[in-house]
């Protein structure tokens, strides 16, 4: 064994001994002298000092008793003792001041990197190998406890950083420690055998940096971190404002729950003080930034029914009370756990919208069109083009017809057959919008489409419902000829005589309909042109599609036919003639984008025919003009083409752009989107656009007659001033109210600012409170942890990759990514693994350990003595890492940007496709295969929230089903209830009304990126990350590493690492608008 390993074991044993001895002293703590809890409401107000007194002597040594005190017999604590232990979960808001950057006690970068290089070489020579690489766990044991000489100014000095001086009150309110985690719970795991990289088969380090380059790279990040952290952290005054709001809301919640328990549940002994609204999340863990939302967890242990249960009326009652107090409140029932979005000062429009939504719910109207499922919209199973059709779905007559079909309480419920019959495509509704309505109907009938993840659990009832909705989808098609064609396809027909089942899928039927539509278009065009060369060469593609419909059926494995249909459809879509026939301008497609698509089709057609574009131009131009969406614009472009006889697609498209720009300005003036002082210049510019469109002869194009004559709107000396003024104004197309619908936005979404304090009230926050305390303890392990987390969170927000409901990662996920690097990757480690250092359980019965060692059946054991962690960190007993903050950030970005060997450590980068971040695991990594997280899964969950009236609540309280009381929990999809086939099947309330059936939500679990929750082991913190989301996240890590790498040469960068992606987008929009003006008026503009 290496000397460093021996020293590491001795130091680790010494550290564990200190923890255990300190725990023995506190063994009787929960049953001994009562300790005053530190509830959040005890925090000082804005006018008070945040720090409440001097810290204890930093040099005070731990007393080591010669004999452990005798163990007390296991005794069930009384009610007062249980309440005292429950109060230990209270997590005060972190009020620490920022770390001083200029007093950083780390060694010089040159010395640091020379030491790192030598340590790396020593590890490379002596570490055991698996397929040529060292064991990850072994490396972790080598670095952190090696006999490395400390730098004189290192982190072992007793003087604590200034931002550690201000501490929360009464540390004794927190548990001193809990049980050592058993080997079974956290098995030791060696490093996964290295996989050769795609472009690095031998696994060599791809980059070699000199010491000077490493210094420059780290210095850049040090400078950026200093400038960001100084203004990013939340201040005491903002904390006090949030705390005052929390206390006021807590009083409202206590009053609502107490009244309900005493008057409705007949519980006169209910104690209002047991209702608590506790802060968790970044504000309590110490990782909060300015303007951070507050996360609050509602705890009511004495309630007869837990507030997070599916039939509990408490969330709706609290929502109503908060609205009555003038706040903006909205209950989200489709999230992973029930949540109330709350704001302090809603504007009048938002408040009225929230009140109307509440009134609709009270009258029994469903409101499933505007709530986000688990904070993310599922886009994995939506075919290409469906996203752009969402606005059409929302505004189409068919969509309104569906909403109107939802009857309020007391009205006659539609039968199953009547609900299917409502699925009708309107004349102007796209196929994708019709498909969206079909999916919505399927969800309302408690059904789901079959996918790879849920196919094993599909029952005959599920297939029958899916068949019925798929048939209704085809029956509802507006085009009768297309409907007849699809219904006659052998692959679609259901045989009632052969006995062979044909289990259709909704996605497969959509693919079938779209393919038949394309074949119809191709056949019609081919018949009109006769034996035209434009369709020659693609007959085999069309014939292959037809043969597939004859030879194959959905059968008992619809997913197999789905794949075959998808491949055949993609081949049909690649036929240039089909693309030309379908050429139409989309609703939100600009003329520039429309022209680019038409030009590509023209090039593909010319390539397919092996001829020039000249012969194709008349046909292409006519299709282009016919596909212009706006009728007035289409007529004007047609008049221009007819009057001039121009045969250049570029000139036709330019005329279209000019007319469209003028129309955009006119609409913007009508909507008062520009300032009054700008209106004269805009009106004058509209007249210029509506004026002369002059032909100019180009002498540069001698071989292409179509490009010889070009048309522009000339900018003369008299009009140049107006054009220059226009270039300074916003693009009218970006100001127009008719913008593409944001699929992640709804009318009730709270604005970012201007509405006071915002917070989320979580009704199932027990584990969240434990997670928060774990992160808070990690923040005390080293003075670099907190600023590093804050910097990464700021970077992710600036680059637009920290919004889970938009398919990216939550802030909590980024915190776990940072901790994984500091615990398992940095050499030596920066933070010890607190779950591995958990002391023994207090000598209490198992039920008394709830909230200390276990929580909701989960293992929540970790070293949670904040005071002791901080003291040992100040004394330098927790790590031997001497890297600067910039150096750690450099390694963090390198680790996640690539999966080859790292440049400053003998470890490989993170493998996004195979690895699972697991903070509890030795080495920090599991494989997706080990976790079973290899493919997306869809589960059905009960929606939370009580029925609209007490009568229905009474009925549902008596219902017995396998899913009763499982709010927010996953249920096996096979137990999905059958849809009601008639009103008689529904239980009746005493008032004679049909009781509203329990609603289920379809929750998608994705594993494109995998981060295991430290306690809820089956929960993937990154489950919200979609395909587009992970592409964005990985691109941003690569971009950051590229910028850092380039800074090694001169210390300067050509790109801004922290440039706000919104600002970047605005710059691109301005550039595109300037290019449009240049095209319209000539290059001299």
Mean pLDDT: 74
Count of DSSP-assigned helices: 35
Q: Kindly state the percentage of residues in helix.
A: 40-55%
Number of DSSP strand runs: 17
Q: Reading side by side through the largest sheet, how are the strands ordered?
A: 3-4-9-6-5
How would you describe this structure to a colleague?
This protein has 1085 residues and is mainly alpha-helical. Helices cover 44% and strands 6% of the residues. It contains 35 helices and 17 strands. The strands form six sheets. A five-stranded mixed sheet has the order 3-4-9-6-5, sandwiched between helices. Strands 13-12-17 form a three-stranded mixed sheet. Strand 5 and strand 6 form a beta hairpin. Helix 3 crosses helix 5. The termini are far apart. The N terminus is likely disordered.
SSE blueprint:
Blueprint: H1 3-25, H2 79-87, H3 109-126, E1 129-130, E2 133-134, H4 136-142, H5 211-232, H6 236-264, E3 276-280, H7 282-285, E4 294-299, H8 314-324, E5 328-332, E6 339-343, H9 348-362, H10 390-395, H11 397-404, H12 416-421, H13 431-444, H14 460-475, H15 480-487, H16 506-529, H17 539-551, H18 558-573, H19 576-581, H20 591-609, H21 617-626, H22 631-644, H23 649-670, H24 679-690, E7 694-697, E8 709-712, H25 717-728, H26 732-735, E9 758-762, H27 766-780, H28 785-798, H29 811-825, E10 854-855, E11 858-859, H30 866-874, H31 885-897, E12 915-918, E13 925-927, H32 928-931, E14 937-942, H33 950-958, E15 970-971, E16 1000-1005, E17 1011-1012, H34 1027-1050, H35 1061-1081
Helix pairs in contact: 3-5, 5-28, 5-31, 5-34, 6-8, 13-14, 14-16, 15-16, 16-18, 17-18, 20-23, 22-23, 23-24, 24-25, 28-29, 29-31, 31-34
């Amino acid at each position: 064994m290496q000397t460093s390993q021996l020293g590491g074991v001795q130091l680790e044993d010494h550290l564990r001994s200190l923890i255990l001895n300190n725990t023995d002293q506190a063994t009787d703590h929960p049953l001994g002298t009562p300790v005053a809890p530190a509830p959040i409401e005890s925090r000082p107000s804005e006018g008070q000092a945040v720090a409440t007194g001097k810290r204890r002597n930093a040099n005070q040594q731990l007393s080591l008793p010669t004999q452990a005190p005798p163990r007390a017999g296991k005794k069930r604590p009384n009610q007062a003792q249980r309440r005292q232990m429950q109060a230990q979960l209270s997590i005060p808001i972190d009020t620490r001041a920022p770390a001083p950057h200029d007093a950083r006690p780390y060694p010089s970068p040159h010395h640091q990197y020379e030491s790192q290089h030598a340590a790396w070489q020593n590890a490379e020579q002596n570490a055991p190998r698996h397929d040529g690489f060292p064991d990850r766990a072994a490396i972790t044991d080598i670095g952190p406890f090696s006999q490395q000489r400390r730098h004189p100014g290192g982190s072992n000095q007793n003087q604590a950083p200034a931002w550690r001086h201000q501490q929360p009150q009464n540390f004794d309110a927190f548990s001193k420690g809990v049980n050592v985690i058993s080997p079974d719970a956290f098995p030791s795991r060696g490093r996964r055998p290295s996989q050769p990289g795609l472009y690095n088969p031998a696994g060599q380090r791809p980059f070699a940096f000199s010491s000077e380059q490493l210094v420059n790279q780290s210095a850049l990040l040090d400078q950026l971190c200093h400038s960001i952290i100084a203004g990013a952290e939340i201040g005491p005054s903002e904390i006090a404002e949030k705390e005052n709001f929390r206390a006021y809301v807590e009083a409202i919640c206590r009053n609502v729950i107490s009244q309900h328990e005493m008057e409705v549940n007949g519980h006169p002994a209910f104690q209002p003080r047991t209702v608590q609204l506790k802060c968790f999340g970044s504000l309590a863990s110490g990782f909060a930034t300015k303007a951070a939302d507050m996360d609050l967890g509602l705890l009511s242990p004495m309630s007869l029914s837990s507030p997070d249960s599916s039939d509990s009326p408490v969330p709706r009652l609290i929502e109503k009370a908060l609205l009555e107090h003038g706040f903006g409140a909205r209950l989200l029932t489709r999230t992973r756990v029930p949540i109330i979005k709350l704001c302090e000062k809603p504007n009048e429009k938002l408040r009225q919208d929230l009140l109307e939504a509440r009134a609709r719910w009270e009258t029994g109207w469903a409101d499933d069109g505007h709530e986000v499922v688990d904070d993310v919209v599922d886009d994995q199973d939506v075919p290409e083009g469906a996203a752009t059709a969402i606005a059409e779905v929302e505004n189409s007559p068919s969509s309104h017809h569906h909403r109107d079909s939802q009857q309020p309480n007391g009205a006659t419920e539609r039968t199953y057959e009547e609900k299917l019959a409502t699925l009708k495509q309107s004349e102007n509704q796209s196929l994708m919008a019709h498909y969206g309505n079909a999916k919505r109907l399927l969800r309302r009938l408690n059904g789901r489409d079959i996918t790879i993840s849920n196919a094993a659990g599909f029952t005959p009832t599920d297939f029958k419902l899916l068949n019925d909705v798929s048939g209704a989808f085809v029956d509802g098609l507006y085009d009768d000829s297309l409907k007849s064609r699809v219904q006659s396809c052998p692959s679609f027909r259901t045989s009632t005589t052969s006995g062979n089942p044909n289990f259709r899928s909704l996605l497969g039927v959509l693919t079938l309909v779209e393919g038949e539509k394309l074949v119809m278009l191709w056949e019609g065009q081919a018949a009109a042109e006769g034996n035209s060369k434009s369709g020659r060469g693609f007959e085999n593609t069309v014939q292959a599609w037809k043969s597939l419909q004859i030879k194959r059926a959905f059968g008992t494995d619809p997913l197999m036919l789905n794949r075959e249909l998808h491949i055949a459809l993609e081949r049909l879509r690649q036929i240039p003639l089909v693309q030309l026939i379908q050429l139409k301008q989309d609703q939100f497609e600009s003329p520039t984008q429309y022209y680019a698509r038409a030009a590509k089709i023209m090039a593909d057609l010319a390539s397919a025919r092996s001829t020039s574009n000249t012969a194709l131009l008349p046909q292409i131009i006519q299709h282009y003009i016919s596909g212009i969406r706006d009728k007035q614009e289409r007529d004007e472009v047609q008049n221009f083409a007819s009057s001039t006889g121009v045969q250049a697609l570029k000139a036709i498209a330019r005329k279209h752009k000019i007319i469209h720009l003028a129309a955009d300005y006119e609409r913007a003036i009508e909507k008062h989107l520009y300032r009054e002082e700008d209106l004269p210049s805009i009106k004058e510019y509209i007249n210029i656009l509506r004026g002369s469109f002059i032909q100019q002869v180009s002498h540069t194009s001698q071989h292409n007659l179509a490009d010889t004559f070009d048309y522009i709107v000339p900018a003369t000396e008299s009009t140049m001033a107006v054009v220059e003024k226009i270039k300074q104004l916003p693009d009218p197309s970006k100001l127009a109210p008719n913008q593409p619908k944001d699929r992640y936005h709804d009318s009730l979404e709270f604005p970012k600012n201007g509405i006071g304090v915002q917070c989320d009230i979580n009704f199932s926050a027990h584990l969240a409170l434990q997670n928060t305390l774990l992160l808070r303890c990690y923040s005390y392990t080293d003075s670099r942890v907190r600023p590093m987390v804050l910097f990464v969170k700021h970077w992710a927000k600036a680059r637009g990759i920290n919004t889970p409901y938009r398919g990216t990662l939550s802030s909590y996920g980024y915190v776990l990514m940072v901790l994984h690097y500091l615990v398992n990757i940095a050499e030596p480690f920066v933070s010890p693994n607190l779950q591995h250092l958990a002391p023994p359980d207090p000598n209490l019965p198992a039920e008394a350990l709830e909230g200390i060692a276990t929580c909701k059946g989960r293992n929540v054991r970790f070293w949670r003595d904040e005071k002791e962690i901080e003291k040992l960190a100040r004394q330098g007993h927790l790590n031997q890492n001497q890297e600067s903050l910039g150096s750690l950030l450099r390694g963090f970005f390198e680790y996640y940007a690539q999966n080859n060997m790292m440049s400053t450590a003998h470890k490989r980068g993170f493998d996004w496709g195979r690895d699972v971040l697991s903070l509890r695991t030795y080495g920090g990594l599991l494989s997706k295969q080990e976790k079973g997280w290899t493919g997306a899964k869809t589960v059905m969950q009960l929606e939370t929230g009580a029925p609209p009236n007490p009568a229905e609540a009474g009925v549902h309280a008596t219902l017995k089903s396998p899913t009763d009381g499982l709010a927010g929990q996953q249920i096996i999809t096979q137990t999905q209830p059958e849809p009601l086939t008639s009103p008689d099947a529904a239980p009746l309330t005493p008032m004679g009304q049909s009781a509203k059936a329990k609603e289920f939500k379809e929750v998608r679990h994705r594993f494109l990126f995998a981060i295991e929750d430290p306690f809820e082991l089956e929960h993937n913190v990154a489950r919200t990350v979609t395909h587009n989301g992970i592409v964005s996240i990985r691109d941003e890590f690569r971009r950051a590493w590229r910028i850092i790498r380039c800074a090694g040469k001169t210390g300067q960068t050509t790109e801004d690492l922290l440039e706000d992606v919104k600002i970047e987008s605005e710059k691109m929009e301005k550039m595109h608008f300037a290019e449009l003006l240049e095209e319209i008026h000539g290059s001299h503009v």
